[in-house]
Fold each of these.
Amino acid sequence: MDEREGWAELRDRRMGEPGAREAYQAARLAFELGRSVRELRQRRGWSQEELARAAGMTQSAVARFEAGGTVPTLPVLERLAEALDADLDVRVVPRSAA
């Protein structure tokens, strides 16, 4: 068995564990939110420190968030959006037209 087969088996086994899929989805969401904020910050030409100051956060908190290391609360997302002069749009959208 080569390394790729070993990794695929390990991944499949881990994804079958209770809560694994939910944890993966939370990590994906955190990463996507962090990427969106980083892109907006960079378009403004701001450093993480400048965004942190505008949002009332620490630079390290902004860095962790942008890296997808934390799942933010809605109030934190609101502060970041306000600091970036952006709208926060949280929606639940049906997957298919039923």
Note: The domain at 3-83 is CATH 1.10.260.40 (434 Repressor (Amino-terminal Domain)).
Amino acid sequence: MISVRHLYKLYKDFVALDRISFDVRRGERIVVLGPSGSGKSTLIRCFNRIEPHDGGILSIDGRIIDEQTDLTQLRATVGLVFQNYNLFPHLSVLDNCTLAPRLVRKTPRAQARDMAMRFLTQVNIAEQAHKYPIQLSGGQQQRVAIARALCMQPRIMLFDEPTAALDPEAISGVVKIVNDLSAQGITTLCVTHEMGFARHIADWILFMDRGRILEISRPAQFFTHPATRRARDFLDQMISC
């Protein structure tokens, strides 16, 4: 589903991504771990060109992603749920979910509303459809952001710190949503600092530091016998926090 070869990204003299390579199969759940500044968020933002990469090859579903790529079409295929949700405060939950399908996919209003309600139901937030974001808790806003992304019917979902500032019950809900997406064949890549969340959802752990991938492991191996000293130090620090 995703192929990355020697991908790199520069910010002036700072190397954010240092010629990294890996593959993701359809329906897999990839969790990207690493210290702050390691390139995790930059990496996933390259997949829908919010952050254009400066070199290497990135392909999604067999198509090369570069400056010639139709961004509207790409972002309909690759959904991103931001850490701060980015909901439109002046629109209701339902209107937040129907806006992009209507404008981008030209979905008729009634059809867009039916689809939005279906996805809001899937993430257990349908009863809040006519409220505004300010009336919702952080966990509820997170669910709305996921439903909004699903309304574009993506094949890949990117999550940037989806459990930040959520309580344990809300985190459990996000775990279920990600697992449900995988069961539907949607590929997910998730950046997180929440180790319990990572354990529960990952098929593979991708560990980064200083723009490089140091380790790609199954969760059981990574959390019990990490292959690199840097990963061991990282886990020790996270456990002691």
Note: The two ends are 36 Å apart (CA to CA).
